[in-house]
Specification:
Elements: H1 5-41, H2 44-63, H3 69-83
Helix pairs in contact: 1-2, 2-3
Length: 84
């Protein structure tokens, strides 16, 4: 258990950040599933829209260090053919 007020505050902050990061990661997974589903249906407009949303969310998550930037770039490269 924490011994100081500062340690208790750190624990509270970590819990808040962890919850937020979980939500962001979950949203990324949902967007990735939407891209995959749009690819499977063959609807190019829907696939482009889903890919754009996924790329934007990946960039934002990488910028705030929720996911590694190289991971974001790798995933963006795999869906980039849909955006064009």
């Amino acid at each position: 258990m924490a011994n100081t007020k500062a340690s208790l505050k750190d624990i509270r902050q970590i819990e808040k950040r962890t919850e937020h990061n979980k939500q962001v990661r979950s949203r990324l997974k949902t967007l990735a599933r939407k891209v995959k589903a749009a690819r499977a249906t063959g609807d190019s407009d829907q696939a482009k829209s889903a890919a754009r949303d996924y790329i934007a969310a990946s960039d934002k998550a990488a910028k705030s260090s929720i996911i590694h930037p190289n991971k974001a770039n790798r995933h963006k490269a795999s869906v980039s053919d849909l955006v064009r």
